[in-house]
Amino acid sequence: MVPAHRFAYELEYGPVPAETFVDHHRLCPKRCVRSEHLRTATMKQNIENAIALRSTNSSGVRGVWLDKKTGRWQAQVTHHGKRYWAGSHAELRDAEEAVVLKRNELFTHNDIDRGR
């Protein structure tokens, strides 16, 4: 048994290379099996393309949280296990813009941010 999207990819393009996964393009629903919406990606690239927020996220924006002491929005991106600071912001929209810019600088597969 293999997932349907992996089967669809292999049917069209052949075996998935070792150490890679089948990833969905940004606008593609995760249940999609259209081969033109699929690509191979490393674990790191697959995570970069993730849309889901952590269960502990309260801002609604990946990489942004409210510092309750200062009342300011903190922005940070993690890449290859290293944290990259994207600033402290008075407005949530400014913090969101900062993490999007930082992810676009560091990531190769963050389609969701590149489509803004």
Q: Mind explaining what this structure looks like?
A:
The mean pLDDT is 88. A hairpin with a 2-residue loop joins strand 4 and strand 5. This protein is 30% helix and 24% strand. It has helices at residues 4-13, 43-48, 92-106, 111-114; strands spanning 21-24, 38-41, 64-67, 72-79, 82-89. It has two domains: 1-41, no CATH class; 54-116, 2-Layer Sandwich (GCC-box Binding Domain). With 116 residues, the chain is an alpha+beta fold. The strands form two sheets. A three-stranded antiparallel β-sheet has the order 3-4-5, with helices on one face. Strands 1-2 form a two-stranded antiparallel ribbon. It has four helices and five strands, in the order H-E-E-H-E-E-E-H-H. The radius of gyration is 17 Å and the shape is elongated. The longest helix is centred in the last third of the chain and has 15 residues, at 92-106.
The CATH class of the largest domain turns out to be: Alpha Beta
| Unreliable residue runs | none
Strand residues, percent: 15-25%
In which range does the helix fraction lie? 25-40%
Largest sheet: 3 strands, antiparallel
What topology, given as strand order, has the largest sheet?
3-4-5
* CATH topology description of the largest domain: GCC-box Binding Domain
Structural class: alpha+beta
**How would the global form be characterised?**
elongated
Oligomer: single chain
At the fourth level of CATH, the homologous superfamily of the largest domain is AP2/ERF domain
Give the domain tally.
Answer: 2
Radius of gyration: 17 Å
Please describe the structure with a list of short key phrases separated by commas or semicolons.
single chain, 116 residues, alpha+beta, GCC-box Binding Domain, 30% helix
